[in-house]
Write a structure and sequence with these properties.
By secondary structure, this protein is of the alpha+beta class. Helix content is 37%, strand content 21%.
Length: 156
């Protein structure tokens, strides 16, 4: 990998993005449709305010309270109100907004930073991708582990 090669040379510029008030359900569908595991969340000025990843969505689903069932003398009883609580939790997790489940203050990198710096940040923070931002924090692209691997393979 050309250690000093700038991120701008390998970053993806056609980036799937979300707004903080987008619905989680539609965000999940978009991630699946584009076959990506994360996407930046941007405000109205295009500044990165978060990162939504499939792991954020799985955590949100995991926070759903499963109804408590008690077994007594061979019979199972659901505690009163548990089914309603389960339904509400599930609706909140899947029907909520991106802002409620996204990772805030994601690690970012600039387009003139090197691939070596990008690889270091990806490894240090155990993330799969970094939003690439300009000096004002506006999204200009995204660089993923795969982009760096492709640059390594392309090296003569």
């Amino acid at each position: 990998m050309p250690r000093s090669q700038p991120v701008r040379d390998v970053m993806t510029v056609d980036v799937l993005t979300f707004a903080p008030d987008d619905e989680v359900r539609s965000a999940m569908a978009a991630l699946v449709e584009r076959d990506v595991d994360a996407a930046p969340v941007v405000d109205g000025q295009g500044r990165v305010v978060g990162l939504l990843s499939t792991s954020d969505l799985i955590v949100a689903e995991g926070q759903v309270h499963v109804p408590t069932v008690i077994t007594l003398l061979g019979a199972s009883f659901e505690l009163p109100g548990e089914r309603k609580r389960f339904g509400e939790d599930l609706r909140r997790a899947v029907g909520g907004t991106v802002a409620a489940v996204m990772t805030t203050d994601p690690h970012t990198i600039g387009p003139d930073d090197t691939l070596e710096r990008a690889a270091t940040l990806l490894h240090q923070h155990d993330v799969s991708r970094l939003p690439v931002v300009d000096g004002d924090g506006r999204l200009v692209g995204i660089v993923a582990r795969g982009d760096i691997v492709r640059a390594m393979i392309a090296e003569p």
